[in-house]
Amino acid sequence: MGHAGEFEMLVMLAVVRLGSGAYGVTVREELERETSRTLTLGTIYKTLGRLEAKGYLRSRTSEPTAERGGRRKKLYEVAPAGLLAIRRSLVDLRRLASGLDLKLEKR
Amino acid sequence: MSAPRTSRLIRFLVGLVVPRSEREYFLGDLEESVIREQGSGHDAERRSSSLRELAGAFQLLFGPRRKVPQQRRRNRGDNMLQELARDVRFGVRMMARSPGFTIVALITMALGIGANTAMFSVVNGVVLKPLPYPDAERIVFLMENNLSRGWNSFTIAPQTFLDWQEQNRSMELMAAYWSRTVTYTGGDRPERLAAYQVSEEYLEILGGEPVLGRGFVEEDMDPNREGVVLLDHGFWRESFGGDPDAVGRSMVLNGVPHTIIGVLPAGWRHPFNRSGMELLLPLRPQSWWGRQNHFLWGIARMKPGVTVERAQADLSAVAAALEAEYPGSNTGWGASVRSLDDVMVGEARPQLFILLASVGLVLLIACVNVAQMTLARGSDRGHEMAVRTALGAGRARVVRQLLAESLLLSLFGGTLGVLLAVVCLRGLFVGWPEILPRMQEIDLNGTVLFFTAGLSLASGLLFGLYPALSVAGSNLGEALRRTGWGVTGDSTRRRLRAGLVVVEVGLAVVLLVGSGLLIRSFLALQNEDPGFQAGGRLTAYTPLPNADYPAADDRRAYAEATLERIATIPGVESVAITTLVPVSGRDEIWGLQLEERPPRGPEDAISALLYRVSPGYFEMLGIPLRTGREFTRDDREGATRVAVVSESFGQTHFPGESPLGKRIRFGGEGSPFLEIVGVAGNVQHYRLGQTSMPQVYLPFSQRPDTDVNFVIKASVPPLSLVRAIRTEIQTVDPNMPLEGVRTLEQIIAEDTSNPRFRTMLLTSFGLTALLLAVVGLYGVMSYTVAQRSREIGMRMALGAQQSSILRLVYRDGVPLVAAGVVVGLGGALALTRVLQAMLFGVGVHDPGVFAAVPLLLVAVAAVAMLIPAVRATRVDPVKTLAPE
Q1: Of B185, B487, B538, B870, which shows the fewest CB atoms inside 10 Å?
Q2: Is the pLDDT of residue B867 over 90?
Q3: How many other CB atoms are found less than 10 A from the CB of residue A17?
């Protein structure tokens, strides 16, 4: 069973949060807002593509909209395997981090 | 703000890096996020922010490949793409590490590839792209000719055309047309519109299917029906706001109402129409049509499978039959058939290919230059490569690494070059009148980008392959051992680099000689005396509509009234009327007879350019009178009919005697004889540097015409008078628009714009070549000096003078330049012949140019060598001789 890297986790979580409106632009906005990173579309595309190839995400194509010059969007949602991977990572994280609050405080 | 569009550049770049399957989504996201970020910001901002996004997208291509679990390779080294990506990434790092080298190499390649891209866009648009007409290869252009009189092409007489149409067997369709201007009243003020009168088949041959309404049908050609007109798409948009209801409305043209029956498709143009056309009118047969009034042009579509040669033979046979049938009118008249392609671009083709070849030489020099620099760096990196090889890198691996770096350079250079080409092409459209046929079809399209991409790859291989092989092939042990105590570097490589400098200098000499010849030719053209004075003179054209000025008296009255009024405008020194303005492109040729030598047959026919001018014309234009007098107010209707002839007319027809008092006549038996009262200097009628046929001048008032041109000499800037002139003319005739308002200087400048264009282009190629060659020479010399710094230091320590150090450096460089100059002059002697057709007043082996170019090159090279030479004298012996 595969697993997801940290950034992949963040991307998948963003996709979950966005519900039915997750595509390149919104995923990037969500991540930039919530994690105060600066990201390029290229990075987002690369990661979304990889997650899809791993079977963690699925995609479908939307109707074209005028705002984007009549081009269609590629909308993503999390696949069951992805949900499983997120759950497992979160469980691992929580387990490993439990009781470390003091040690993780800034000295 | 309208919906913003992603620019073509961005779309092109995205196409390079984003897989096709993702492209649409990516472009959409790109556009959307840029709009969100910038709002309705500036174009430039939007573009820069798109470019920033794209920089991120490059990771899609160059970043680590997607790792998909089931595809994971056992040995990462086996993955070609990964290795390529690593080579590229390493190449980028190497480029960043030596920014000086990278910048110079990039600029060099951008110049070379950019100039080639721009030039190829022009060649592609003008020559290579198929003509924008259906079955264009079957379309031919028809004219009459009269070879016995030296006329290779002449307009066609209407009856003759109708006979061709009926009797030929090679054409599917044949159409006749002629161009004229008509006065349109009903707009804000009277306007002159350019119109073509065309026969029924014309639009079908040229594929001009109207987008609105209908084309011409048989009934439209009936002279007894009401007038109809087709509108050019651009004119319809401008004057009718693109209103579809315009069709069916009426337009008053030359005082007669015409029904608008349709609108031509956007972008459709008549093949040779450079200035644009507004209307198409049906060519309706007239009672006066005959076999001797030549004014039509013909265009035809050959039957499938018929060649131009066969069509020519067919029409020649028809013309011969007509000669036999109508000897009085058709003797000597033949038919000329030329392919549309030949007529449209036949003249431009050789010029453009010469320019393309020249700019190719510039790219060759650029490649040689970058190869030089790569070689120089290769020597420095020989050690690095040897270490790599020692650590187990195969030779192929090292060559590939070096090649990847070269290709990277050439591709980046090519991308910059495309941007440069865009700028150049924009300059071409802004700065120049229509100097080439099909200029509106020139653009930087997919074909051009494909060409550029190929060119970039080829250049990268050209300048990268040899250095890569030579570096990778060098002896491992020797390279490792050679840590710097060697004196002058590897001798084979040094010879190679010297050879490259010779090649560069030689190519630059060839290009400079070519541009030198064009410059001299252009200067000769500038100094050419047109036979009249152009400065401070203005011309304006008011063709009189036949409907308003049917009789000679009407035309005479118009001329007298307008001349009188214009002369009173403050700032007008003098004004005259002429039916022809020299160099403006129009002509009027009449056959004539000499009283003392009546023609015995058609072979005795003589002809001349016929001008009709008002008194004062010669003085005002500064045309000298060699003998006799010019016209006065007394040369009026009813007085003795008189003429002034040009010197060349006198020399041709009255050799050795004075033409004064001789009598000539235009039109055959029954026409009155005219007495020659003056001889004027020759005027260059067609274009500067082209001898024109002899000229005859008649007083306008003795033979008035509808082609009225005013020539005005002003004591103020001439164009400031235009409004006053228009007012005065419209006081005489309120429906008379003013057209063709230009100064004579403008007319001459336009006439020389084509030579100016090619001279400027070839000169800029020549100078670029010189610059690149000099940079190359400088690079080689600097490198040699750096390599020999130990030797120089030692010599100085042993007491060598500065002058002997300078001599040492020059002894290295001067033979290279000398050899290059000799090679280049040899090449130039062989190659400049191709320029023959473009030269005027200078031979292809002009000694001045062949002497000046070597001097220029030697002078510039001396300066280029001076810098490294002086640097050599500053070598500090202590530093260079200190142990490592």
Answers
A1: B487
A2: no
A3: 14
Residue where the block lists tokens 């500064």 = B622
Which of A46, A61, A66 is facing B60, going by the closest CB pair?
A46
Give the start-to-end residue ranges of the domains of chain A: 6-98
Strands B227-231 and B572-578: unpaired
User: What one-character DSSP code corresponds to residue B656?
Assistant: T
Count Cβ atoms within 10 A of the Cβ of residue B316 and give its class: 0-12 exposed, 13-18 middle, 19 or more buried.
middle
Q: How far is it, in rounded angstroms, from Cα B103 to Cα B105?
A: 5
The residues on B that touch A, with CB distances below 8 Å, are: 3, 5-6, 18, 22, 24-33, 35-36, 52-60, 63, 66-69
Q: How far apart are CA B408 and CA B370, in angstroms?
A: 13
Closest CA to B605 of B401, B331, B194, B240: B331
Query: pLDDT by residue (tens digit) across B805-817?
Result: 888 888 888 888 9
pLDDT band at B547 (very low <50, low <70, confident <90, very high): confident
Q: Which residues of A touch B62 (CB under 8 A)?
A: none
Please calculate the CA angle B200-B277-B303 and round it to the nearest 5 degrees: 35
Model confidence band, residue B60 (pLDDT cutoffs 50, 70, 90): low
- Count other Cβ atoms within 10 Å, centred on residue B293: 14
Half-sphere exposure of B49 (CA within 13 A, CB side): 17
Q: How far is CA B447 from the centre of its chain?
A: 20
Instruction: Give the Cβ contact number of residue B372 at 10 Å.
Output: 25
Tell me which chain B residues have a C-beta less than 8 angstroms from the C-beta of A50.
66-68
Q: Is the CB of residue A7 less than 8 Å away from at least one CB of chain B?
A: no
The position carrying tokens 């579809």 is: B244
Higher pLDDT, A80 or B800: A80
3-state secondary structure of B96: helix
Residue B652 is encoded by which pair of tokens? 């041709």
CA-to-CA separations, B425 to B10, B124, B422, B481, in angstroms, rounded: 19, 13, 5, 53
Residue B829, both tokens:
């002697």
User: Is residue B52 very low, low, confident or very high in pLDDT (cuts 50, 70, 90)?
Assistant: low
Residue B702: both structure tokens together: 């003795």
B12-21 pLDDT, tens digit each: 777 766 777 7
- The whole-angstrom distance between A50's CA and the closest CA on chain B is 6
Position B160 confidence tier, pLDDT thresholds 50, 70, 90:
very high
A6-98 CATH pick, 3.30.230.10, 1.10.10.10, 1.20.810.10, 3.40.50.1820? 1.10.10.10
Cα–Cα distance between A25 and A71 in angstroms, integer?
Answer: 13
Is the pLDDT at B63 greater than 50? The verdict is no
Q: Please state, as a whole number, how many other Cβ atoms lie within 10 Å of the Cβ of residue B829.
A: 14
Min distance A31 CA to chain B CA atoms (Å): 14
Residues 6+ apart with CB under 8 A from B519: B759, B763
CB B797 within 8 A of CB B140: no
Provide Rg for chain A, Cα atoms.
16
Tokens of B820: 């290059």
Judged by CB atoms closer than 8 Å, whether chains meet at A54 and B27 is answered as no
Chain B interface includes A28 (CB < 8 A):
yes
By three-state DSSP, how is residue B495 classified? Answer: helix
The CA–CA distances, whole Å, from B880 to B462, B487, B796, B868, B877 equal 36, 12, 11, 16, 5
DSSP, res B152: E
Q: Tell me the two tokens of residue B382.
A: 């020989």
Contacts of B181 (CB under 8 A, 6+ apart): B192, B193, B194, B195, B543, B739
Half-sphere exposure of B161 (CA within 13 A, CB side): 29
Could you tell me whether strands B537-543 and B739-743 are parallel, antiparallel, or unpaired per DSSP bridges? antiparallel
Which bin fits B692, alpha (ψ -120 to 50), beta or left (φ > 0)? Answer: beta
